[in-house]
TrEMBL record:
<keyword id="KW-0413">Isomerase</keyword>
<dbReference type="InterPro" id="IPR014347">
    <property type="entry name" value="Tautomerase/MIF_sf"/>
</dbReference>
<dbReference type="GO" id="GO:0016853">
    <property type="term" value="F:isomerase activity"/>
</dbReference>
<dbReference type="Pfam" id="PF01361">
    <property type="entry name" value="Tautomerase"/>
</dbReference>
<dbReference type="InterPro" id="IPR004370">
    <property type="entry name" value="4-OT-like_dom"/>
</dbReference>
<feature type="domain" description="4-oxalocrotonate tautomerase-like">
    <location>
        <begin position="2"/>
        <end position="62"/>
    </location>
</feature>
<comment type="similarity">
    <text>Belongs to the 4-oxalocrotonate tautomerase family.</text>
</comment>
<protein>
    <submittedName>
        <fullName>4-oxalocrotonate tautomerase</fullName>
    </submittedName>
</protein>
Amino acid sequence: MPSIDIQVLQGVFSDAEKARIIEKVTEAFGEVAGQTIKGGTSVRVHEVASGSWGYAGQVLTTQDALAMKARG
């Protein structure tokens, strides 16, 4: 069945927030794909080490991501 992978910087989201991300993504996918497929959907949150992610040629750190998260 469907497999959804989400990558985030390590230390940005709490376990409770990651659980909520998994729940919401599964629910949204189910709204489109149907409840039968939703029941077989796998969602994984992968944490990438701080400094091992780049965006627009710039290295991102956990502190950068926390600052973005704080801005909303």
